Amino acid sequence: MEEVSSIAYGVHQILRQGHYDGIRSFDGFDYVSSVIKSDPFHNYFFVTSNSPQGLDEDAMIKILRNLRKDNLDAFLYLKADHVESFTDFICSHKLVERGVDSYMVKNLTSTKEVALPNGFVLTTDYDFDQMANMLVECFDGWQDEKEYAAVYEKLRHQNVDGFVFETYAITFDGKVVASGAVALGRKQNLAYYHNTGVDARYRRKGLYTALISARDNFALQNGVNKVVAITEPNGDAFKAMGKEGFKEEDRFILYAFP
């Protein structure tokens, strides 16, 4: 592994137990494939080299061509610090920036009380369909939300050696109004917070903070003291994470092939 974020790589090793069904290593990159096929861009090339000279470009293009035969695709996942050294590669392949991932990290020291307004209940015993429908509304336009949530719901009930998966929901009058998932790797000493959403009608009530606190406690109870979330830089989640003590540790750029 050359000059690549240990945090980012740790997250992807944890998610290999989840919606990633394989990670194949090549010179200069790992090819990561997903069990979710409805969006062709769930597959990607995680660049592990700090320059294109260390990249097996032929292997990458071969994988891409085979994917496209099945109407699938993959994007390039490149550490932001390395973009300058990949300028010629990006230009020669006419890559188009598709998005930016900010890795927000926090080190934990002690558990804390989970505070909720009157009438709201934190639980891991919830109605999955209610939760998934609420998240679909939160992430309007993401067609894979239910399929993604179902993958991690199934993992909550399985024994995966060294990895633990949980989802917390907050209910009000028996209805799910907020939820957040955590995927934890003991070997990686890392807990990844993901798929967090709060019903628009119940925001600004401290529910987001409560979901962070609940997962912080869960991580510590499972012997992990470092947590991470992936957000869009300077977006609402980025700002919210900053208020919860998270700091940006790394940034990756997603590029689409023409």
Molecular structure report:
This is GNAT family N-acetyltransferase. InterPro entries: Acyl_CoA_acyltransferase (IPR016181), GNAT_dom (IPR000182). Pfam families: Acetyltransf_1 (PF00583). GO terms for molecular function: acyltransferase activity, transferring groups other than amino-acyl groups. The structure is a single chain. The chain has 258 residues and is α+β, with helices and mostly antiparallel strands. The chain folds into two domains: 96 residues, no CATH class; 115 residues, Gcn5-related N-acetyltransferase (GNAT) (Aminopeptidase), CATH 3.40.630. It is 29% helix and 33% strand. It has seven helices and eleven strands. Strands 1-2-3-4-11-5-10-9-8-7-6 form an eleven-stranded mixed beta sheet, sandwiched between helices. A hairpin with a 2-residue loop joins β7 and β8. The longest helix has 15 residues.
